[in-house]
Amino acid sequence: MDLLHILAGALVGFVIGLTGVGGGSLMTPILILGFRINPAIAVGTDLLYAALTKANGVFFHHRQKTIDWSITLRLATGSIPASLLTVLLIKKMHQLGYDYEQLMTTTLGIMLIVTSLVVFFRKKLNEYLHRGLRRKNSVVSRLKKVRGEITILTGLVLGFLVTLSSVGAGAIGTALLFLLYPNKRTVSIVGTDLAHAVPLTAVAGLGHWQIGSVDPLLLGGLMSGGLPAIYLGSMVGKNIPDRFLRPLVAIILLVLGLRFSLKAVLV
């Protein structure tokens, strides 16, 4: 294991513990830009890193009864098949000689920008949703009638995007659940999204492993640094106001997203 990989895992793990944001949003860009790792390897390895580091959180939320398993199942009904089909698409593109890595980095850039906006405007989004609930003919009220079907469709879209970029299972997934289920408590939304993110990233990561785009030694180094750092970050984060941390992470994600997007445009 490379010491720098362990430190990278620790850095991202600390940010995850500190803010609840990070994971693929930070790890994949660090691996691609900082370590010059092949984008496919970075995405595949980070997907398994995300699945393993988040698994403990699912156990905690299940014990606290803050997971709505019916919503998790609806999301997975769309996301798991979409993830498997995306892995098959990547494999086919590789066999035919298409530049699938360019598709992955472009998707990564877009997802980072969207994630940064979600982190920036989370509170305003929540306020809008709760105002919408009080109006009978609002978009939010209309969504309630078909939200079961929309939840499955949301899972399908997330399955495709997360498998391609390793980004979106956390911040974006949570934002979409707030939109569909604004009456649910925040802790329940977070727990439900986490319960969906773990199997999604695990299936996507194992799919990448099967096509050879996971580095086991790199994964081991990231995990060695990440697991203890998540715990440390969660302890430190209790004493730091959220209003300072989240905007800082959002700015970093926005800069990284613009970096990948501009690169895709200029290529």
Give a quick rundown of the structure.
This protein has 267 residues and is mostly helical.
What does the model show?
It is built from eleven helices and no strands. With 267 residues, it is an all-alpha fold. It has one domain. α5 packs antiparallel against α11 and α8 packs across α9.
Topology:
Elements: H1 3-19, H2 24-34, H3 39-63, H4 69-96, H5 100-120, H6 122-133, H7 139-165, H8 171-180, H9 186-210, H10 216-237, H11 242-266
Helix pairs in contact: 1-10, 2-3, 3-9, 3-10, 4-7, 4-9, 5-11, 7-8, 8-9
Record keyword descriptors for this entry.
about 270 residues; mainly alpha
- The overall number of domains is 1
Helix/strand order, N-terminal first? HHHHHHHHHHH
Query: What is the radius of gyration?
Result: 18 Å
| Helix count from the secondary structure assignment | 11
Poorly predicted ranges? none
> Helix coverage percent of residues?
over 70%
- General form: globular
Profile the largest sheet: none
Distance between the termini: 33 Å
Classify the secondary structure makeup into a structural class.
mainly alpha
The count of strands amounts to: 0
Strand content of the residues, in percent?
under 5%
Mean pLDDT: 85
